[in-house]
Write a structure and sequence with these properties.
Strand 6, helix 6 (164-176) and strand 7 (181-184) form a beta-alpha-beta unit. This protein has helices at residues 2-26, 44-60, 75-82, 96-105, 140-149, 164-176, 188-196, 209-214, 261-274, 278-286, 296-316, and strands spanning 33-37, 64-68, 90-95, 116-124, 128-132, 155-158, 181-184, 202-205, 218-223, 251-256, 290-294. It has a six-stranded mixed sheet, sandwiched between helices. The protein folds into two domains: 32-125 and 249-316, Bordetella uptake gene, domain 1 (D-Maltodextrin-Binding Protein, domain 2, 3-Layer(aba) Sandwich); 128-223, D-Maltodextrin-Binding Protein, domain 2, CATH 3.40.190.10. The termini are far apart. By secondary structure, it is an alpha/beta fold.
């Protein structure tokens, strides 16, 4: 009899616990939501995520705050999110390249295809290669010619090892058989500051380059995109200059893979509405970001397709022999 009573009490506790979990999930969100960003404050990833958060909190009716956790070319923030309770209160805003490019070059503390629940892709950065305005190099061809004649003399900054900005220079280096010194930073602001301070000779940056080019501090030698920039239409793309490379990254929000499905759906719907907000779109325009929309399924497919494309390119250029991280 005692055994039966214990069994029924145990069963009742399970039912009550399940009800409470379901009820909490149904009431989501009931408190602040934190979005981790793996790059330094003031950069394009940070600013675009803040714009999205400001718009989303009006819809979710709870504070949505940004917390910067830079390091590991964005992987520290993703790992930190995965260490939290998968209840929808800790998310991560990240360039897709951290998940599908950086993880192929260095061992990642996650599996790119199975550790995350894609929520939304919301912005595309404009990337380019810049030098200081008083630099002797007027074109990318000038820079490459100098690098060929002076191995290991040029230093360049990027947003981190394995980032898309780094990969663009790797493409040039591999094709031209150059030897240059890479100085990675925790975001474009830091990489740009290094250039302006004379610590490096050129930089491969995201949208932070735009104000510096407009103000005359830097000169844009090439844009890293499929098409020319609408802001600087006179500047050629890397592809036009003979390099088979273009930006393959979008800014996205992801959650842990085991987040409750109804919470993930609420977040997808809220962010989908948030990116239509006029103030959000104006904020993106100010930092030179291109608004895009990838729902969860489209973002998942994008990650899988571009993992294969990037893997093929990294192996073909000799950067890796095989991916450093198993995708699933």
């Amino acid at each position: 009899m005692k055994t039966k009573n214990i069994f029924f009490i145990f069963l009742l506790l399970i039912i009550l616990f399940s009800f409470n979990v379901h009820d909490a999930s149904a009431q989501y969100p009931e408190r602040q939501i934190t979005i981790l960003v793996g790059f330094s404050a003031g950069g394009s990833m940070d600013l675009s995520a803040r714009a999205l958060a400001a718009s989303a909190e009006k819809i979710l009716e709870q504070p949505v705050v940004i917390e910067n956790k830079s390091g590991g070319t964005g992987m520290v923030a993703l790992a930190s999110m995965l260490a939290q309770n998968p209840d929808g209160y800790t998310l991560c805003a990240t360039p897709s390249s951290v998940i599908i490019r950086v993880s192929q070059i260095q061992q990642a503390p996650f599996k790119p295809f199975t550790s995350f629940k894609p929520i939304i892709g919301f912005a595309e950065p404009q990337l380019g290669i810049v030098v200081k305005n008083d630099s002797p190099w007027k074109s990318l061809k000038d820079l490459v010619s100098y690098a060929k004649m002076n191995p290991n003399k040029l230093k360049y900054s990027t947003t981190g090892v394995g980032s898309t900005t780094h990969a663009a220079i790797d493409e040039i280096t591999a094709k031209q058989k150059l030897q240059m010194i890479h100085v990675p930073y925790k975001g474009s602001i830091n990489a740009l500051t290094a250039l302006l301070g004379g610590h490096v000779d050129f930089a491969s940056l995201t949208s932070e380059l735009i104000p510096s080019v407009k103000s005359g501090q830097t000169r844009l030698l090439a844009v890293i995109s499929e098409n020319r920039s609408p802001i600087f239409p006179e500047v050629p793309t890397l592809k036009e200059l003979g390099y088979d490379f273009a930006n393959d990254a979008i800014f996205a929000v992801v959650a842990p893979a085991n987040i409750p499905a109804n919470i993930a759906k609420k977040l997808e719907d809220a962010f989908a509405k948030a990116i239509k907000n006029k103030e959000y779109l104006e904020s993106l325009d100010k930092v030179g970001m291109i608004p895009v929309y990838y729902d969860g399924n489209k973002l998942r497919n994008f990650l899988r397709i571009y993992w294969k494309k990037i893997n093929k390119h990294l192996i073909a250029t000799g950067i890796i022999k095989e991916a450093a991280t198993v995708p699933e």
